[in-house]
Amino acid sequence: MAKNVGVEIRNIFTAQNLQKHFLTGLSFMIPVIIMSGFCTAIGRIIGNTDVEGTVGYWLLTAGNGGFSIMIAILAAGIGYSIAGKAAIAPGIMGGFLSVTVNASFLGGMIAGLLAGIVTILLVRLPLPKTVKGIIPLVIIPLVGGILEVLVIIWIVGPPLAALTSAAINFFMNMNTGSKFLLGFCLGSMTGFDMGGPVNKISFAIVTAFASSGVWGPAAGKNVAAMAPPLGIALSVLIFAPKKWKPADRQNAIAAIIMSMCQVTEGALPFAFEDPVRTVPCVVLGSGIADGLIMSWGVTVPLLSGGIFTIPVASAPLLYAAALLIGACITGILLSIVKPKIKEDMKEEKVTDDLNINIDF
Amino acid sequence: MKFVGVTSCTVGIAHTYMAREKLLSAAKELDMIGHVETQGSAGVENELSQDEIKDADVVIIAADVAVTGEERFAGKPIVHVPTNTAIQTPKSLLKTIQKKLNSKRFVR
Q1: Among the ranges A344-353, B20-29, B95-104, which has the highest mean pLDDT value?
Q2: Is A358 in the B-facing interface, judged by CB distances under 8 Å?
């Protein structure tokens, strides 16, 4: 029995599972980010955010509230992915504390892992059945909560807070060239798989900066996420319409709308059909757009929100310009490398030897 | 081969649904019977019925994140893959599973 728990805990840390747990956490957190982002944006657009009692003030308050709980939701999601419902409470506790001690994103990830591990250990305790009932109700919140407090506040909190502020200082002191490079890296990752796991790694880094109050990477990431579908649509509808199929045209219109709402996934139908040509064009466009934003020093206090973020950018014109430049780079490159239409639909090479495991 | 599947991705708006469509159309081409449930941002859709699960030879979880209700599949052979496997190589996925099941002589 003890051996099983050991295996279960070791399983958490295999690369594939670890990625799954973090992605689950992110998928819990993203709606919170979007919700708070829109509250903040609409609040700022309405204005009067300093005057208590106005609509703008309350919307901004709501947005800030959302940002202060998002790390808690991340930790809860990671815990949930590892150990189910019982891990949510300790996860929220640890994630929230992590924000309080400035360990922010990194602390939240550790808080989530800890919540999951503690929950697995407590649930598997060999206890009589009568006592077992109170474990999820009393013991996990109590022990899990106390452990989270101890670990986050005294053990991982201080070094992570120092690490976070060091990273922020490093970023602040970067010269323009290195900022462009950092932006290019984050942007290319954002564009690379158009909403997939690599995109989410970049999202996580940007969120880490944002939760410490640095919003340059967020601006870059927004632009890098909006550019791919827009760029492809430009190629389909304007730059090289003859190189695309009629079905692509419909997808392109959908892609424009998705780009406006910052749904990078709008580019996916094109990328799946022709990844070898599409992905490099998208990576370059997104990377350069993000790099420009970073080197121009544009900031946006939102992690998502599409064109609705433009009015609240520190320099709306530069912000929109970077988006258009990125999209045009993607569009033009793609129009150049795309071959004339040939009716050879790419077929899957079918094999029965994929490397997968069946658990019987 | 009969299978049931669950698909789910990080944001829950694109890969989740593409994986379902790819699995179902591959199943049709390979003469297999499949039912696939999506767990996207809109919650559970096309929920699997108990009969569908009972009749299935295998459970395919094509997900990048944790899915809910995995306890429904207790006792069934279960395959975990990322959504990308189901989207890019759906037929290979199904054929590989069938071959592995056959070698275990689990197919009814």
Answers
A1: B20-29
A2: yes
Angle between helices A88-100 and A55-83 (to 10 degrees): 130
Question: What pTM value is reported for the model?
Answer: 0.72
Q: Give the ipTM of the model, two decimals please.
A: 0.74
List, for residues A115-144, the tens digit of each pLDDT value: 999 998 888 877 777 777 788 778 888 888
CATH number, domain B2-103, options 3.40.50.1000, 3.40.50.720, 3.40.50.2300, 3.30.1390.10: 3.40.50.2300
Q: Is A24's CB within 8 Å of B80's CB?
A: no
Query: What is the domain partition of chain B in residue ranges?
Result: 2-103
Cα–Cα distance between A239 and A73 in angstroms, integer?
Answer: 43
Residue from B65, B98, B101, B105 to probe the interface with A (highest A Cβ count within 10 Å): B65
Q: A112 touching B, CB under 8 A?
A: no
Is residue A71 within 8 angstroms of chain B, CB to CB? Answer: no
User: In chain A, what residues touch B78 (CB-CB under 8 Å)?
Assistant: 358-359
* Comparison of pLDDT for A136 and A229, the residue scoring more: A229
Check if the beta carbon of residue A80 is closer than 8 Å to that of residue A91: yes
Among the listed residues A209, A201, A205, the one whose alpha carbon sits nearest the alpha carbon of residue A169: A209
Give the best residue of B64, B68, B78, B79 to mutate against chain A (max A CB count within 10 A). Answer: B64
User: Domains of chain A: which residue ranges?
Assistant: 2-172, 176-337
Q: What is the pLDDT of residues A327-343, one digit of tens each?
A: 999 999 999 998 877 65
Sign of the alpha-carbon dihedral angle for A147, A148, A152, A153: negative
Just list the catalytic residues of B. Answer: 9
Contact B79/A359, CB-based, under 8 Å? yes
Q: Cα dist. A194→A212, A259, A280 in Å?
A: 26, 11, 12
pLDDT at A74 over 50: yes
Residue of A nearest to B60 (CA): A358
